[in-house]
Design brief:
113 residues, globular, Arc Repressor Mutant, subunit A, 2 strands, mainly alpha, single chain, two-stranded antiparallel ribbon
């Protein structure tokens, strides 16, 4: 039950759902995610930590950046069953659409300097 509770806790915040929807487009670094959400890096980092603990997001160090991406295959059956559903949801949501436009403008070389 603890694993399921972690997943639902991670999905209980709108910004964390927005992060998951952003990562459907491409892997993003902390600065890009903070820029898109219009929150402090520390706030975005907290959200990412919760998503990572639930098994929804992975991170990968790439030089000076840490890239965050959706988990391809999780040890959690709950994550594996929910991820395809999450990808189908909120496609026409105005906030998600706006976030996708911001992703195009998010340039880590400028944001993270």
């Amino acid at each position: 039950m603890e694993d399921l509770t972690k997943v639902f806790k991670a999905l209980s915040d709108p910004n964390r759902i927005r992060i998951l929807k952003m990562l459907e487009s491409r892997a993003l670094c902390l600065c890009e995610i903070s820029f898109i959400l219009s929150v402090a890096n520390s706030t975005a980092s907290q959200h990412l930590s919760i998503l990572k603990e639930a098994g929804l997001v992975i991170d990968d160090k790439d030089g000076k950046w840490v890239n965050y991406a959706l988990t391809a295959a999780s040890a959690s059956v709950y994550v594996n069953e929910l991820m395809p559903l999450i990808k189908k949801w909120l496609i026409d949501d105005k906030t998600i659409k706006a976030d996708r436009k911001k992703i195009e403008a998010a340039d880590r070389k400028i944001l993270c300097s």
